[in-house]
Write a structure and sequence with these properties.
heterotetramer, A mainly alpha, B mainly alpha, C alpha/beta, D alpha+beta, C: Rossmann fold, Dimethylsulfoxide Reductase, domain 2, 4 domains, six-stranded mixed beta sheet, 29 strands, disordered N terminus, D: alpha+beta, Alpha-Beta Plaits, four-stranded mixed beta sheet, 11 strands
C-alpha cells in the first residue's frame, strides 16, 4: 500500500518514472555487458568464448598412470598427435599401443610405467582404460565438428595451441598427470557455449 | 409438508451446538468409512507402484489407446469440482441465500475433487519422475515447456483454480473457525487459533471480509468456466474425430456443473442423514438443488444432441464413422447407459414427489454421476479406437491396474472429505445465522407469501403472523 | 533440477571406443566391452589398428547372406568390431536390396541360443566337450566307418565347401551326399530339364508383359526372391505387365496379382490346359508349336470341363487367355502349390506347355549361362533326398551321417518317422550353429561359426544372366572362440584322412587363397594373387566367364493326371511357406517372429486360413481354434478368415511348431508338415507337400488372434488408391 | 549445482531466444513411395528394426498392441470384395501401404507436446527428443496416422539377451520405458551423410543419405532424398506427380496422376508422397 502509493504519486506528479526505469535498465545491461566482456577477455582462443563452470575432478584409477604433464607440457606434444581420431571422428580415441611403442621402444624404457606398457605390448594385450570424460548415452557429441569450428576453420588460431581448445571441456590437461574431469559436461555447460559461440540450438544436433 | 428453506425460529446457540457436535466424537461408522477409504487408496497405491516400476504396460494402454481411464477420470473429477464454485460464487452474487447451509461442503468437494483430479495427469505420465518439466522454471539448460500445448494450459489452469478455491473456502470459513476456536480445547484450539487469523468479529474485519469474499466470488466464476474450457481444449484442440468439436468448451462446462450438482445431492443426503442436519439441509433446499440439476441436465442433453446432429450432417466422414461406432460399436452399451443416465434419468428430478424422497434422490444422484463418468470415458476412448487410420483401429478394455487407480481415487476423495467434516464445520454457522436473521426480519415473509400465492394457496392472505406485524 | 540427470539405464548407448584385440583381419575385432554403470565404461586402446579403422565411424565389408539358398551378396556395416547392419551388395548378382530374411540373418549371427562349444552324447544327454574330445570321438566312430557306410545330409552347398565335401566323400568311398531343401523347385527343375534340357533357365520377368504363375511365389520364397523382386520392379514400370496368379492360397505374389485365381489344389495343370484350349479354340494362336499328342489332350479340356474340375469360372479362363493373347511376350511359371501333388510333374509340364504354345521359350525363358567351374556350382536341394535318406537310414546303410544346414527331423512328415530313422544311425554328427531338432538328435555336435564370422565362397543356385562366385569374409571376430567354420572342419577332416593335397594348408583361409590364386587368368583379369584377392574380397563377388547355353523344346505328356477324392477328409491342406519363417529356419530370429506375415499380418504364432464360406459352414469365427486332422495326425491353431484361400482348402504356414531350436522358436505355433500324408509326385519322386487331405473340426476354444492391424478395409478413406493400368500407361508408360 | 550455474551465468539466460517465425530450411528430407512397385514384402520394416534398435516385444504384448514398429506394412483388402457376396475371392490381391512417420510440415503432434520434446528441425524433420519426453502420449493421440509408438515397458533386457545386444546401433539411443518414439528418417544416417559431405568440403548430394528402408527395398519402391535439391530423384518424382509441399489439396493439371499424400485433407502437409497402386481394370 505504502510503496505503491508513493510510486503512483511520483509517476503522476513528475512523469520521471520512466526515466528512472530506463536508467535502471541501462545499468543492468551495462553490468551484463561487462560480464560478457570479462568472460570474453578470459578466452585465449580467437573467435571463441569458452563455457564457464567447473567440476571438482576426482582421480580416476588407470592401468598405467599416464603423465599428461610430461607429454603435453614438458615435451610439448600436440594433443592431436596421440588423440589422433579427434579431428575426423566423433571420438578422440585413445592412442593405439603401437603409437606409444613408437617412442617408448627407445625412450625411457627403464621407467616402471614404460615397463608395464612394454609388457602389455609384448603380451599382445590391449589396455583397458577407464573412461574419464563421458557424456550420457542419449547425447551425440562429435569431436570433429568442435575441432573444425575452433581450430582448423578458426581464423587466427594456431593448431599448435590446440590444447587451449581442448581445455574448454577437458580442463588444463597439461597440468595433470592422469586426466580428471574438471568440467561438468552437462547440458547447461554445453548450452552456454553454444549460445556464446552461436552453435546450433537444434535439439537433434546433440540428442539422439 | 416442509416449505420453508429454514426454520426462522431456530436458536443461534442451537446452530452452533448442532454444527460443532457434528465435528466431535466420530462414531464407529466413521472409522469404518475412513478405513474403507484408506483401503481403497492402498489398492491404487499398489497399482501405481507396480506401474511406476514396470512402465505403463500393465495399465493395458496400447497403440492406439494412449489415453484411457486416467484421462477420463481426470476430466470427471475436474468436472465435479465445478459445482462448489457455482453454488458458492454464483449464488452468492445473485444473493440466493438458500445456498448458505450447503455451500461449505460443496466448496470442500471442489477442493478435494481438484486434488484428486490433479493426480491423474501425473499418474498417467510415462515418466512420472520428470513431471515438473511441464512447469516453467529457470534452469541452466535454458529450455521451457511448450506453451502451445493444452496440457501446459491445464497445469496452469488447475493449479490456479485449486489455489483460488482453497482460498475461497478458507476465507469463507474464518468466522466459523473463530467460533470453533472459542469452543475448542487442546490441539483443536491451537489449530483454530492459527487458522482463524485473529478473527474478533468487529466491524472493520467484517467489512474487509465481505469485500474480499465478494471479490473472490467474482474472480472465481470466470476462472471456473475457463478451467473446464481449457480441459476441453485437450480434446478440442486436437485433430481427432470426436475430439475436434467446436461445442466442447460449453459442453464440458455443462457436464462439469451437472456432475458437480449430482455429487452435491449425494453428499447433501449423506450429511443430512449422518450428521442429522435436517434443520439446515432442508427438503426445500434439496428441491432447489434438484431443479438446478435438472436445468443443467437439459442443457447438457441439448449440447449432446447438437454434437450428434453437427457430426451427422457435417462433412467429416471420419467423425461420422466414429459416431456410428459409438452408437452400435463395441462401446455402445456404455454409450447408451451414459445417455440414459445423463438425459433420461434426470426427469425423475422433475417430479416433486420423487425430489422429496431422499433414498430415491440418493440413488438417482449416484446414477447421474455414473452417467457423467461414462460420458468422459466415451469421449476419450472411442475416438482412439476408431480414428483416421483404419489399420490402427482397435478395441481395448482397461486392465485391473487402471481400475484400481480409478477406484482408489474415490477412496482418496472420500478420505479427504471424511477428514474435513470432522475437522472443519461442514455447515456455515455464521451464514446460517445470517439466513435465519434475514428470513426472520426482512423478506422471508414476503418470499413465503409469494411462494404460497404462486402455488395457489389462498390461505396465505390470511397468515396470522403477517397481520400481527 | 538438471534435465540431464536421467537414470543411466534410461538410455543405453554403447559408446564404444575401439575394440579389444589386434585388428589383423579385415574389420575383425572383439566387440566393445559393454557395461551399463556410469563411469565404469572402459575405453579400449587398439594394439595396432588398420588405417581405416576409426572409432566412431563405420566401415563396410562385403560378404554373402546364407539365410536362404539364393545367396545374395551383402554389405555389412562394422563399427568398433561389431557388425551392426546388413545391406544388399550393389556389385553382387542380386544387387542392391535385401529381403527381410537377409536383414534378420544378423540375429542368427548374434543369436543367444547359438551353440558355443562341441557337445557329445553321454548317457542319453548332450554334454559339452572340448574340441580334442570331439576329434577323438570322430576318430573312433567316424573314421572307422567302412567304405561307403557314411553319408552327408546337407542343405544347398556350393563353392569350395562343396569341393571339400566331395573330396571327403571320395576319400571315404561314399557317394552319398543328400542335398535337401524343404522349399525347392525340384519338380520344376525336372520338367525344365526334360523339356528344355536346362534345369534352371533364366526367367526374364523384366521382358515379359504377362506373367501367368501357377503357385510360383517368386516375390516370397520361390528360387530367388530378391532377384525376382528387382525384376518385378522392371516388369511393373513402363509398359506395365500383367500378373496373373493361379493358386489355392494367396501368397505374397498373389497379393500383388492383377488377377488372383483360386483353383482347386492340384488342378493347376487342368487350368493351364483350359487356357490353352481357349487360346487354340478361338484360333488366337496356332498350335503348330505343340506336338499332336499335346493338342489332343488340350482338346479334351474344354472350358466347361475345366470349370468343373478346377472350380475356375469359364470367363476367368477366357480373361486369362485374352491377356496372354493380347500381350506378348508372356511367361508362365509354376511353383510350390502346383508341384506339391501326386500329379505335380504334370502340372508343371502343363505350365511349360503354355510357354511352348505361346512361344516364350527363347523369349522370356532363356538358356542360363553355364558357369565355367562345374565343381563350384551349387548342388540344388530337393525333398526326394530326404525320402531316399530315410529309406537308406531305415535299412541301416550307414554307420556315420553328417548333418549340416538342414533340419530333416523338423521338416519331415510324421509318416516318415524321421527321428526314429535317424536314431538308427549309430553315429550322427551335426555341424550346426543352433540347437535345432536334428542337432539335438545327434551324437556329436560341432559348433559352426556364423556366415559372418568365416571365410568362404559360394555360388548362387540361380544365376540367370551372369555367373559369379560370391565371397564370404568375416565381418567380425567370432563371438565364441570355440566355433569353427564348416570349411575349417572339412579341411581338418581331410587332413586327418591323410589326403596329401590338403596337408599344406593351415586353415580354410589359406586353402581358399591358394585356390583363388589358381583361378585362370581370364577370371583374374591380369591381377596378381594378392591384388586379385583383395579386389575379390572388396567387391564380394568374382565374376566368372560363362558358357552360353541353348534350349531345346521337347514337350512331354501334358495329360493332367487323376484327382483322388478326399473321402473322409474333404478339405485340402496347404502348408504354405512365407518369407518370415521360410522352412522353419528363421523361427529363432525374433525380428522375423515379430514381423507380421505379409498377407494375414499374424505374428509369433501359427494360424489356419479359411474361406468365409468354409468358416460359416463350420461355424467358426476369427480367432477360434480348429483342429486340422489328416490321416497322419492333427494340429490345432486359430482361424483367420479371408477370401484369399480356396473354399475347399485350409492353409497353415510352415516354419513354426519347433520342439527345439532355442527360446524364440520353441513351443511356438504348430508344424503342418508333420501331418502330411505319404504321397509323392509320381514322376519326380518329390514329396507331395500340397496333396494332403484333411478334415476340420471346432475345438471350442477362442482367443484374440495375434494379428497386427484393425480394419481390413480402408472404410472409404483414400489411403491406398487404385488406378487402372490404362491410366498408368497413359501417364507413365514407356 | 545447477542453481550455482544459473547464478554464475545469469547473463546467458537473459539472452533472447532466436527469432521465431519463418526460417529457411537447410534441407527438406522427403520420400516418394511407389505403391505400384511395393510388394508388401516387409523387408523395410525388418531393416528398420535392425537400424533403429527396435525391441521385439513378444507375442502377448504385440497382440495387446504394445509393440513398436516404426515402419509398419499395412495391408487392406479391396472394399467391394469384402462384405458383398459379389465375388468369392480377393481377385485383385491386397493393397500394401508402408507407413512410417510422415514428417508433416504442419505436424499435429508438435504443438501438443507439453515439454516440446517433439519439434521441427531445420532439416524439415519431425524430431522426437527421447530424453526430454515425459510420456504424456498426447502426440500419439493427435497423430492421425497413428505412427508414434510408446515404450510401455523396459525392453532392454528381454529384447536383447546377450549377445543380441551387440547388434545395437551405437548411433542412437535405446529407449527405455515411458518414452514415445517414432521413425526419424534415420537421423543417424542423415548426420553421417552430412558429416561426410562436410569433411569432403561439399554440399550433400542425392544418394549421400539413404534410409534403411529405402536402401533395403528390393523393388526400389521407396525413394528418399532432399526435396530442396532440384536434382534429387525424389524431387523429380514429386514434380512429375505434381505434388507440392504446403498444399492441402493437390491441384493437378492431369487428373490421372498418381501422386498423393495420405490423409491430405487434414492439412498436415506430410513429406512422404505415395503413388497409387495400379491394377488391371
Amino acid at each position: 500500500m505504502f510503496v505503491s502509493n508513493k510510486f503512483l504519486s511520483k509517476r503522476r506528479g513528475k512523469g520521471v518514472g520512466q526515466g528512472k526505469v530506463s536508467q535502471c535498465l541501462a545499468m543492468f545491461f551495462s553490468v551484463l555487458a561487462s560480464v560478457f566482456i570479462v568472460a570474453a577477455a578470459q578466452a585465449e582462443v580467437p573467435n571463441a568464448k569458452p563455457p564457464t563452470g567447473t567440476h571438482s575432478g576426482e582421480d580416476v584409477p588407470q592401468p598405467i598412470e599416464f603423465p599428461h604433464d610430461i607429454h603435453a607440457d614438458i615435451n610439448g606434444i600436440n594433443c592431436m598427435y596421440c588423440h589422433t581420431y579427434a579431428r575426423r571422428s566423433k571420438v578422440a580415441g585413445i592412442p593405439p599401443t603401437s603409437k606409444c611403442m613408437g617412442c617408448h621402444s627407445i625412450i625411457a624404457t627403464d621407467k616402471p610405467r614404460i615397463k608395464k606398457l612394454t609388457e602389455y605390448w609384448e603380451n599382445n594385450e590391449t589396455i583397458l582404460w577407464n573412461k574419464v570424460h563421458d557424456v550420457p548415452d542419449f547425447v551425440h557429441f562429435t569431436h570433429e565438428k568442435h575441432l573444425q569450428r575452433f581450430v582448423f576453420k578458426n581464423e587466427g588460431m594456431d593448431v599448435a595451441n590446440v590444447s587451449e581448445v581442448c581445455a574448454f571441456c577437458h580442463g588444463d590437461v597439461k597440468k595433470m598427470t592422469v586426466a580428471k574431469k574438471v568440467k561438468p559436461l552437462n547440458m547447461g555447460f554445453c548450452v552456454r557455449c553454444h549460445e556464446a559461440n552461436d552453435g546450433p540450438s537444434d535439439c537433434w544436433k546433440c540428442h539422439k | 409438508m416442509q416449505t420453508k428453506d429454514i426454520n426462522e425460529n431456530i436458536a443461534w446457540a442451537k446452530i452452533n451446538e448442532d454444527v460443532l457436535r457434528s465435528m466431535e466424537n466420530p462414531r464407529m461408522g466413521y472409522w469404518v468409512a475412513l478405513a474403507a477409504c484408506v483401503a481403497m487408496i492402498m489398492c491404487a497405491v499398489l497399482a501405481e507402484i507396480y506401474q511406476y516400476q514396470v512402465g505403463m504396460g500393465p495399465s493395458g494402454l496400447n497403440w492406439p489407446h494412449m489415453w484411457d481411464l486416467y484421462i477420463a477420470t481426470f476430466v470427471f473429477w475436474i468436472g465435479m469440482s465445478h459445482s462448489g464454485t457455482l453454488l458458492s460464487a454464483i449464488l452468492h452474487i445473485i444473493q440466493a441465500d438458500w445456498r448458505k447451509p450447503i455451500y461449505r461442503f460443496a466448496e470442500a468437494m471442489t477442493l478435494f475433487s481438484l486434488m484428486t483430479a490433479g493426480l491423474f495427469p501425473i499418474i498417467h505420465l510415462g515418466r512420472v519422475w520428470n513431471m515438473y518439466w511441464v512447469l516453467p522454471y529457470v534452469s541452466d539448460r535454458g529450455i521451457w515447456p511448450n506453451f502451445r500445448s493444452p496440457l501446459v494450459w491445464d497445469a496452469f489452469a488447475i493449479t490456479t483454480y485449486m489455489t483460488s478455491s482453497a482460498l475461497f473456502l478458507f476465507i469463507g470459513m474464518i468466522p466459523d473457525l473463530a467460533i470453533c476456536r472459542d469452543n475448542a480445547r487442546g490441539w483443536r484450539q491451537k489449530l483454530y487459533t492459527v487458522l482463524s487469523l485473529g478473527w474478533q468479529g468487529d466491524d472493520r474485519q467484517w467489512r474487509h471480509f465481505r469485500r474480499i469474499y465478494l471479490m473472490m466470488a467474482c474472480f472465481l466464476i470466470p476462472l471456473a468456466v475457463s478451467v473446464h474450457s481449457i480441459v476441453s481444449a485437450d480434446f478440442a484442440m486436437s485433430i481427432m474425430p470426436g475430439w475436434h468439436v467446436t461445442t466442447f468448451p460449453p459442453y464440458f462446462v455443462a457436464g462439469a456443473l451437472y456432475s458437480g450438482c449430482a455429487a452435491i445431492i449425494t453428499l447433501f443426503i449423506l450429511l443430512r442423514y449422518f450428521f442429522r442436519f435436517d434443520e439446515y439441509m432442508t427438503i426445500p433446499i434439496m428441491e432447489k438443488t434438484c431443479k438446478l440439476t435438472f436445468a443443467i441436465a437439459m442443457v447438457w442433453t441439448y449440447l449432446n444432441l447438437i454434437e450428434f446432429a453437427a457430426t451427422w450432417y457435417g462433412h467429416d466422414p471420419v467423425a461420422k464413422e466414429l459416431l456410428i461406432q459409438k452408437f452400435i460399436g463395441p462401446h455402445a452399451p456404455f454409450f447408451w447407459t451414459m445417455l440414459f443416465c445423463g438425459s433420461v434419468l434426470p426427469f425423475t428430478l422433475a417430479f416433486e414427489k420423487l425430489r422429496r424422497h431422499m433414498p430415491t434422490m440418493f440413488v438417482v444422484s449416484l446414477f447421474l454421476n455414473l452417467g457423467m463418468w461414462l460420458e468422459r470415458w466415451m469421449i476419450v476412448t472411442p475416438t482412439l479406437s476408431f480414428s483416421h487410420q483404419p489399420f490402427a483401429w482397435d478395441i481395448m478394455w482397461p486392465s485391473m491396474v487402471q481400475w484400481a487407480i480409478v477406484f482408489g481415487s474415490f477412496g482418496w476423495f472420500g478420505m479427504l472429505f471424511l477428514i474435513f467434516v470432522k475437522v472443519f464445520p461442514s455447515v456455515s454457522m455464521y451464514e446460517v445465522k445470517e439466513m435465519v436473521f434475514h428470513r426472520r426480519h426482512y423478506h422471508s415473509d414476503e418470499l413465503e407469501s409469494k411462494f404460497h400465492r404462486r402455488a395457489g394457496d389462498r390461505q396465505s392472505d390470511a397468515d396470522p403472523s403477517r397481520e400481527g406485524a | 533440477m538438471s534435465g540431464s540427470d536421467i537414470n543411466r539405464r534410461d538410455f543405453l548407448k554403447f559408446m564404444g571406443l575401439g575394440g579389444v584385440g589386434a585388428a589383423t583381419l579385415s574389420g575383425c575385432d572383439m566387440p566393445t566391452t559393454i557395461t551399463l554403470e556410469e563411469g565404469k565404461e572402459k575405453v579400449v586402446a587398439y594394439l595396432a589398428p588398420e588405417e581405416y579403422a576409426i572409432p566412431g565411424i563405420g566401415v563396410t565389408f562385403a560378404s554373402t547372406c546364407k539365410q536362404c539358398p539364393s545367396g545374395c551378396g551383402v554389405h555389412g556395416r562394422v563399427r568398433e568390431g561389431r557388425v551392426l547392419k546388413l545391406e544388399g551388395n550393389p556389385d553382387a548378382l542380386n544387387g542392391k536390396g535385401l529381403c527381410q530374411m537377409g536383414q534378420a540373418s544378423l540375429q542368427g549371427h548374434y543369436n543367444p541360443d547359438r551353440i558355443t562349444q562341441p557337445m557329445a552324447r553321454k548317457g542319453g544327454a548332450l554334454e559339452p566337450v572340448t574340441w580334442e574330445e570331439a576329434w577323438k570321438l570322430m576318430k573312433e566312430k567316424a573314421s572307422g566307418a567302412a567304405q561307403g557306410r557314411s553319408a552327408w545330409f546337407t542343405g544347398t552347398v556350393s563353392g569350395h565347401q562343396s569341393v571339400l565335401l566331395s573330396a571327403l566323400n571320395k576319400a571315404w568311398g561314399s557317394k552319398d551326399h543328400y542335398v535337401y531343401e524343404a522349399i525347392n523347385n525340384a519338380v520344376g527343375e525336372a520338367v525344365n530339364k526334360s523339356v528344355l534340357g536346362d534345369a534352371a533357365p533364366a526367367y526374364r520377368l523384366d521382358k515379359a508383359k504377362v506373367v501367368l504363375s501357377f503357385g510360383a511365389d517368386f516375390l516370397g520364397t520361390w528360387v530367388s526372391p530378391v532377384h525376382f523382386s528387382r525384376e518385378y520392379s522392371k516388369f511393373r514400370t513402363g509398359d506395365r505387365g500383367v500378373l496373373i496368379q493361379v493358386e489355392p492360397k494367396m501368397t505374397l505374389t498373389g497379393g500383388n496379382a492383377d488377377l488372383w485365381v483360386a483353383a482347386r489344389p492340384g488342378t493347376e495343370g487342368v487350368v493351364a490346359l483350359g487356357v490353352a484350349n481357349v487360346l487354340l479354340s478361338k484360333n488366337q494362336v496356332d498350335g503348330k508349336q505343340l506336338p499332336q499328342a499335346a493338342l489332343d489332350v488340350i482338346s479334351q479340356y474344354g472350358v466347361d470341363k475345366v470349370t468343373e474340375i478346377s472350380g475356375v469360372p469359364g470367363d476367368t479362363l477366357v480373361r486369362i487367355a485374352k491377356y496372354l493373347n493380347e500381350r506378348s511376350p508372356s511367361l508362365v511359371l509354376s511353383g510350390e502349390s502346383a508341384h506339391g501333388h501326386a500329379n505335380g510333374y504334370q502340372n508343371a509340364m502343363a505350365a511349360m506347355m503354355l510357354n511352348v504354345l505361346l512361344g516364350n521359350v527363347g523369349e522370356t525363358i532363356e538358356a542360363s549361362n553355364s558357369m565355367a567351374f562345374d565343381e563350384l556350382k551349387a548342388k540344388h536341394g530337393n525333398s526326394k533326398a530326404m525320402l531316399d535318406f530315410a529309406a537308406a537310414a531305415d535299412a541301416g546303410k550307414y554307420d556315420v551321417v553328417f548333418f549340416t544346414g538342414a533340419n530333416p527331423v523338423y521338416t519331415a512328415p510324421d509318416h516318415l518317422a524321421m527321428a526314429e530313422k535317424v536314431a538308427k544311425v549309430p553315429f550322427k554328427v551335426a555341424l550346426s550353429m543352433f540347437p535345432d531338432e536334428t542337432t539335438m538328435a545327434a551324437d556329436l555336435v560341432l559348433p559352426l561359426s556364423s556366415p559372418y564370422e568365416e571365410w568362404g565362397t559360394s555360388v548362387s543356385p540361380y544365376q540367370p544372366t551372369d555367373a559369379a562366385i560370391s565371397m564370404s569374409q568375416p565381418l567380425m571376430k567370432p563371438l565364441s572362440a570355440e566355433t569353427k567354420s564348416l570349411g575349417d572342419i572339412l579341411l581338418s577332416m581331410l587332413k586327418y584322412q591323410g589326403i596329401k593335397d590338403y596337408e599344406g594348408f593351415d586353415d580354410y583361409y589359406a586353402y581358399l587363397r591358394s585356390e583363388l590364386d589358381g583361378l585362370p587368368g581370364s577370371v583374374k583379369a591380369g591381377k596378381d594373387g594378392d591384388e586379385f584377392w583383395s579386389a575379390a574380397v572388396q567387391r564380394g563377388v568374382i565374376k566368372v566367364p560363362t558358357k552360353a547355353g541353348s534350349l531345346k523344346v521337347n514337350l512331354g505328356d501334358v495329360s493332367p493326371g487323376g484327382h483322388q477324392s478326399g473321402g473322409d477328409y474333404p478339405m485340402h491342406l496347404i502348408p504354405s511357406s512365407n518369407q518370415t519363417m521360410y522352412d522353419g529356419r528363421n523361427a529363432n530370429l525374433p525380428w522375423l517372429q515379430e514381423a507380421p506375415d505379409q498377407i494375414t499380418k499374424i505374428f509369433w504364432d501359427s494360424w489356419v486360413e479359411m474361406h468365409p464360406k468354409a468358416a460359416a459352414k463350420l461355424g467358426v469365427k476369427e480367432g477360434d481354434f480348429v483342429r486340422v486332422e489328416s490321416d497322419q495326425g492333427a494340429v490345432e491353431a486359430q482361424v483367420y478368415i479371408y477370401k484369399g484361400v480356396h473354399v475347399n482348402a485350409v492353409a497353415i504356414p510352415v516354419g513354426r511348431g519347433h520342439e527345439e531350436y532355442g527360446r524364440y522358436a520353441k513351443g511356438n505355433g504348430v508344424n503342418p508338415l508333420k501331418i502330411l500324408s505319404s504321397i509323392v509326385d509320381g514322376k519326380s519322386g518329390e514329396l507331395a507337400t500340397h496333396a494332403t487331405r484333411v478334415r476340420i473340426s471346432k475345438v471350442g476354444r477362442s482367443e484374440e488372434l495375434p494379428r497386427l492391424g484393425g480394419s481390413e478395409v480402408q472404410v472409404g478413406r483414400r489411403l491406398v488408391n487404385t488406378v487402372s493400368a490404362d491410366v498408368f500407361k497413359r501417364t507413365e508408360g514407356a | 549445482m545447477s542453481l550455482k550455474n544459473i547464478l554464475e551465468n545469469w547473463s546467458h539466460y537473459r539472452r533472447a531466444h532466436e527469432e521465431g517465425g519463418h526460417h529457411e530450411y537447410e534441407h527438406m528430407w522427403g520420400m516418394a513411395i511407389d505403391l505400384n512397385k511395393c510388394t508388401g514384402c516387409n523387408a523395410c520394416s525388418v531393416a528398420c528394426y535392425a537400424e533403429n534398435n527396435l525391441p521385439t516385444v513378444g507375442k502377448d504384448r504385440m497382440r495387446k498392441g504394445q509393440g513398436l514398429h516404426w515402419l509398419r506394412m499395412e495391408r487392406y483388402w479391396d472394399e467391394p470384395d469384402l462384405g458383398g457376396d459379389d465375388k468369392e475371392y480377393q481377385e485383385r490381391g491386397g493393397s500394401f501401404l508402408p507407413m512410417m512417420c510422415q514428417h508433416c510440415n504442419a505436424a499435429t503432434c508438435e504443438p501438443v507436446c507439453p515439454v516440446a520434446a517433439t519439434y521441427h528441425t531445420p532439416d524439415g524433420l519431425n524430431a522426437q527428443v527421447y530424453n526430454r519426453c515425459i510420456g504424456s502420449r498426447y502426440c500419439s493421440n493427435n497423430c492421425p496416422y497413428r505412427l508414434r509408438y510408446f515404450n510401455f515397458y523396459s525392453y532392454y533386457e528381454e529384447s536383447w539377451p546377450e549377445p543380441l545386444n551387440m547388434q545395437l546401433n551405437p548411433d542412437l539411443s535405446v529407449r527405455d520405458k515411458g518414452v514415445m518414439e517414432k521413425c526419424t528418417f534415420c537421423i543417424q544416417r542423415i548426420r553421417t551423410g552430412k558429416d561426410a559431405a562436410q569433411r569432403e568440403g561439399r554440399e550433400v548430394k542425392d544418394g549421400d543419405v539413404v534410409t534403411a528402408c529405402a536402401q533395403t527395398c528390393p523393388t526400389e519402391a521407396i525413394v528418399f532424398g532432399d526435396l530442396l535439391d532440384k536434382d534429387a530423384q525424389v524431387t523429380k518424382l514429386w514434380k512429375a506427380q505434381e505434388v507440392e509441399l504446403g498444399r492441402a489439396k493437390q491441384d493437378k493439371s492431369d487428373g490421372e496422376l498418381r501422386g498423393y499424400r495420405v490423409l491430405e485433407g487434414l492439412n498436415t502437409d506430410p513429406c512422404v508422397m505415395y503413388m497409387d497402386r495400379v491394377r488391371e481394370a
